[in-house]
C-alpha cells in the first residue's frame, strides 16, 4: 500500500470516538509502564557489574568503567535498529498488512545480527588500541581489554535485542521485552558473581556474563518474532531489499544519534574545562539526567507505536489525538519529575561525594535541570512521535541544527564561567536550557504541520 498524505475525511466523528482521552490514556499507560520497566532493567547490568568488579580493586573497576563506556556507546549508536523497526512494523500493522510487518521484522533481525557480528570482530581486535587511545593508565589497560574482548561476542545478541524489541513495540507489545530484560538482568547478576568471584575470572568474567545474558535475551526475543513470522507464513531467510531498506531508513536516525552523542560529549568537555569539582559534579548530575531520560522515554516509546499504527491505518484524527495526549503526559511527567528533583537536589550530592564543593555543584545544577524538565518531557515525546511517523530525515537535519545552536553557548560557558558550582550550573543552563529549547522549537514546529503525517504502510 503506497504512502499518502493526510486525508481530512478520516478526521471525523468515528476517529474522535476512537480517540477519547480516557481510552488513549489507557493505551499510553499500557505501553509506557512495561517500556519503563525494560528501560530501567538495562542500567542494572552496569550497576551489578560495577558492584561485583569493585570488590577486585580500583584498577579492575576503572577498566570496567572505561570498557563499559565504549560498549554502551557502540550499542547506543545502533539504537536506530529499535526505532526503525518500531515505526515500520507499527505502520504496517496499522495498514492491516501483518505479513509485511513480520517480513520487516525478520529482515531487521538479520540486519542486527550481521551488524553485531561485524562490530564484535572490530571491537575485539581494536580493544587494546581503544583502551590506550582513551588514556587508560598502564595498570587499567589489561582490565579494559579483557572486558571488551569477553563482552564483544555478545554484540550480535545486544543488537538483536534492539531490533526484536522494536518489532514487538510496533505490535504494541511492551510486556515481552520487559519480562526478557528483567530475566536477563537477574541472569547477568548470577553469572557475574559466579564467574568473577566464584571462578576467579576477574573482569573477563564480567564481560562473559554480559555476553551470555545478552545472547540469550536476543534469542528469546527473536524466538517470539520468529513465531509471529511463521504464523503469518513469512519466510525466515533475509531479503536483500528488506535489509538494505533497513540500512537506508536507519541512517538518518544514526545521524540523529551522533548529534545527540556529540552534545553529551561537548557538555562533558565543558565540565572538564571548569575544573575537578565541576567534572565530578557533572558525572553525578548526568547520571540523574540519564535516569530521568529513561523514565520520560517510556512515553516516547508509547508515542512511536501508537503514531505508527495510526498513520498506517490512515487515521489522522487518532494520530493527532495521540500527539496531544502524549504531549500532555510528557509535559506533566517532566513537571512532576522537576518538582521531585528540586525538592531533593540538596540531598543527592552527599550520596556520591563527601566534598562540600561537589555537593554544592550538584545541588545547583540539579535545580537548573528541574526547571528544564517539563521542556525535556515535551521534547522526548515529540521525538517519539516523529520517529513513529518515520520522519528520520528531518530529525537528522535538525539534530545538527540544534547542536550548532548549543555549541556557542557551551563554548561561552567554558571560556568565561567561573569554575566550581557556579560554572557547572551555567553549563547545565546551556545543555538543559539552550539545547533542549532548540530541540523543542524544531520538533514543535514540525509537529504543528502535516508534512510528517504520511499515511499508509511504509
UniProtKB/TrEMBL annotation:
<keyword id="KW-1003">Cell membrane</keyword>
<dbReference type="Pfam" id="PF01554">
    <property type="entry name" value="MatE"/>
</dbReference>
<keyword id="KW-0813">Transport</keyword>
<feature type="transmembrane region" description="Helical">
    <location>
        <begin position="361"/>
        <end position="382"/>
    </location>
</feature>
<dbReference type="GO" id="GO:0005886">
    <property type="term" value="C:plasma membrane"/>
</dbReference>
<dbReference type="GO" id="GO:0042910">
    <property type="term" value="F:xenobiotic transmembrane transporter activity"/>
</dbReference>
<keyword id="KW-0812">Transmembrane</keyword>
<dbReference type="GO" id="GO:0015297">
    <property type="term" value="F:antiporter activity"/>
</dbReference>
<feature type="transmembrane region" description="Helical">
    <location>
        <begin position="327"/>
        <end position="349"/>
    </location>
</feature>
<dbReference type="InterPro" id="IPR048279">
    <property type="entry name" value="MdtK-like"/>
</dbReference>
<keyword id="KW-1133">Transmembrane helix</keyword>
<dbReference type="InterPro" id="IPR002528">
    <property type="entry name" value="MATE_fam"/>
</dbReference>
<keyword id="KW-0472">Membrane</keyword>
<protein>
    <submittedName>
        <fullName>Multidrug transporter MATE</fullName>
    </submittedName>
</protein>
<feature type="transmembrane region" description="Helical">
    <location>
        <begin position="207"/>
        <end position="226"/>
    </location>
</feature>
<feature type="transmembrane region" description="Helical">
    <location>
        <begin position="394"/>
        <end position="417"/>
    </location>
</feature>
<feature type="region of interest" description="Disordered">
    <location>
        <begin position="1"/>
        <end position="20"/>
    </location>
</feature>
<feature type="transmembrane region" description="Helical">
    <location>
        <begin position="178"/>
        <end position="201"/>
    </location>
</feature>
<feature type="transmembrane region" description="Helical">
    <location>
        <begin position="28"/>
        <end position="48"/>
    </location>
</feature>
<feature type="transmembrane region" description="Helical">
    <location>
        <begin position="258"/>
        <end position="280"/>
    </location>
</feature>
<feature type="transmembrane region" description="Helical">
    <location>
        <begin position="286"/>
        <end position="307"/>
    </location>
</feature>
<feature type="transmembrane region" description="Helical">
    <location>
        <begin position="150"/>
        <end position="171"/>
    </location>
</feature>
<dbReference type="InterPro" id="IPR044644">
    <property type="entry name" value="DinF-like"/>
</dbReference>
<feature type="transmembrane region" description="Helical">
    <location>
        <begin position="104"/>
        <end position="130"/>
    </location>
</feature>
<comment type="similarity">
    <text>Belongs to the multi antimicrobial extrusion (MATE) (TC 2.A.66.1) family.</text>
</comment>
<feature type="transmembrane region" description="Helical">
    <location>
        <begin position="423"/>
        <end position="441"/>
    </location>
</feature>
<feature type="transmembrane region" description="Helical">
    <location>
        <begin position="60"/>
        <end position="83"/>
    </location>
</feature>
Amino acid at each position: 500500500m503506497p504512502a499518502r498524505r493526510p486525508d481530512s475525511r478520516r478526521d471525523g466523528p468515528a476517529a474522535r470516538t476512537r480517540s477519547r482521552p480516557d481510552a488513549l490514556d489507557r493505551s499510553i499507560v499500557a505501553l509506557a509502564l512495561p517500556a519503563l520497566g525494560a528501560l530501567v532493567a538495562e542500567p542494572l547490568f552496569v550497576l551489578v557489574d560495577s558492584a561485583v568488579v569493585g570488590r577486585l580493586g580500583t584498577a579492575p573497576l576503572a577498566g570496567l568503567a572505561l570498557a563499559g563506556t565504549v560498549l554502551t556507546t557502540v550499542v547506543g549508536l545502533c539504537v536506530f535498529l529499535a526505532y526503525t523497526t518500531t515505526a515500520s512494523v507499527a505502520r504496517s500493522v496499522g495498514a492491516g498488512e501483518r505479513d509485511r510487518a513480520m517480513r520487516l521484522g525478520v529482515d531487521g533481525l538479520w540486519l542486527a545480527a550481521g551488524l553485531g557480528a561485524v562490530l564484535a570482530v572490530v571491537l575485539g581486535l581494536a580493544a587494546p588500541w581503544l583502551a590506550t587511545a582513551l588514556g587508560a593508565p598502564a595498570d587499567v589497560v589489561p582490565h579494559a581489554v579483557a572486558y571488551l574482548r569477553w563482552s564483544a561476542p555478545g554484540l550480535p545478541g545486544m543488537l538483536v535485542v534492539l531490533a526484536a524489541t522494536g518489532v514487538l513495540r510496533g505490535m504494541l507489545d511492551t510486556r515481552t521485552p520487559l519480562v526478557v530484560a528483567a530475566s536477563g538482568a537477574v541472569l547477568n547478576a548470577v553469572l557475574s558473581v559466579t564467574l568473577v568471584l566464584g571462578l576467579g575470572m576477574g573482569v573477563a568474567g564480567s564481560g562473559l556474563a554480559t555476553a551470555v545474558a545478552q545472547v540469550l535475551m536476543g534469542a528469546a526475543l527473536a524466538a517470539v518474532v520468529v513465531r509471529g513470522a511463521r504464523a503469518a507464513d513469512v519466510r525466515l531467510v533475509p531479503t536483500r531489499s528488506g535489509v538494505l531498506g533497513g540500512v537506508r531508513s536507519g541512517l538518518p536516525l544514526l545521524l540523529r544519534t551522533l548529534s545527540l552523542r556529540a552534545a553529551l560529549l561537548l557538555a562533558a568537555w565543558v565540565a572538564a574545562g571548569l575544573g575537578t569539582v565541576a567534572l565530578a559534579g557533572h558525572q553525578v548530575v548526568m547520571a540523574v539526567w540519564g535516569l530521568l531520560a529513561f523514565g520520560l522515554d517510556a512515553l516516547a516509546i508509547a508515542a512511536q507505536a501508537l503514531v505508527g499504527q495510526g498513520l498506517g491505518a490512515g487515521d489522522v484524527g487518532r494520530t493527532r489525538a495521540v500527539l496531544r495526549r502524549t504531549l500532555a503526559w510528557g509535559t506533566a511527567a517532566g513537571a512532576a519529575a522537576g518538582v521531585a528533583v528540586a525538592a531533593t537536589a540538596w540531598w543527592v550530592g552527599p550520596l556520591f561525594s563527601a566534598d562540600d564543593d561537589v555537593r554544592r555543584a550538584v545541588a545547583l545544577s540539579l535545580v537548573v535541570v528541574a526547571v528544564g524538565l517539563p521542556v525535556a518531557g515535551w521534547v522526548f515525546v515529540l521525538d517519539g512521535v516523529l520517529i513513529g511517523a518515520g520522519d528520520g530525515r528531518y530529525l537528522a537535519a535538525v539534530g545538527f541544527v540544534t547542536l550548532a545552536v548549543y555549541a556557542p553557548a557551551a563554548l561561552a560557558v567554558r571560556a568565561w564561567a567561573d569554575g566550581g558550582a557556579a560554572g557547572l550550573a551555567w553549563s547545565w543552563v546551556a545543555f538543559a536550557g539552550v539545547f533542549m529549547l532548540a530541540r523543542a522549537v524544531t520538533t514543535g514546529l514540525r509537529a504543528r504541520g502535516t508534512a510528517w503525517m504520511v499515511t499508509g504502510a511504509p
